[in-house]
Amino acid sequence: MRFLLDDEQRGFARSLDAMLTASDTPAAIRAWAAGEHGPGRALWERLAQAGVFALAIPEAYEGVGPLPVELAVAFTELGRHAVPGPVVETVAAGVLLEGVGGAVAKEWLPRLASGAASATLRMDGHGPYALDADAVDAVFTVTDDELRLAPGSGALGVSSDPARRLWRPEAGGELLASGPRVAKAAARAARWAAFATAAQALGTGEALLRATVGHVKQRTQFGTAIGSFQAVKHRLADTLIGLEFARPLLYGAALALAEGAPNAGAEVAAAKVTAGEAGYAAARTALQLHGAVGYTEELDLSLWLRRARPLRDAWGTPGACRARVLARTEASGG
User: Fold this and answer.
1) Predicted structure pTM score
2) pLDDT surpasses 80 at 295
3) Under 8 Å CB-to-CB from 308, ≥6 apart: which residues?
4) CA-based nearest residue to 104, from 187, 174, 153, 55
């Protein structure tokens, strides 16, 4: 199947790219890593005005969604520009609360859609941490089919990406809902989180490849640009193929989510593992071809390099995603 974006979707991507290019995201990322959230929050406000956080929230709650294709477009751009903060988790929290329904959905979903509030999320099966819990208005946790509003951000953990601040939420908090509907909503939220993370990983890989191509055109050895060497060309070509192979899987997953297909979980898992591995491969290529300069924190490239591996593993490790795809294939007799 061939996936092509329409003019409106391509225009949406261009508008986000232009806005983020003008926003000096490297400075916002470095401030976020230092615990200074002002520049990042200002960036989030602009994203909210562009409708990014409303894409997964239904119109009944003042959103415009669910629009998974447009969400893929948006989060690829967010990954390409390495936007800091729990953008994925805010979207996933919206999906979770919409599935739970009731007063909690009416209270929080319009605020999340408009950007008036931000949220992060920790769920059983996806590690003990909530991303950037100190920077949001709400920390939602799902444990044993119970949805709670955590009483505080908790204890700070360690991440290979200093701009991804991992917090272990405090136990307890206000019980918002419990029972089978929470478990069902949590499974759907995790699926959307994996999907959005896959789009981020794809965009991160694209940014790393673009930076590397620019670098090998300028760096010389023996009086010749290293980009003219066959070994370098082959490495870049392999990286590009990996990213381009991931793109149709991402949009295939978007269509499966849009249609509520029974195989949507497997489609998302396939997109997640493929985009995550492609983004991580782009990081390895960038590091190798930049040489020693690629290790320096002063180089903006490091902000993308450090993000590729956490995105590969967040909301579904490669092993977990492959197992999901394999289980679906065996169940269908493929």
Assistant:
1) 0.96
2) no
3) 201, 204, 205, 208, 279, 280, 282, 283
4) 174
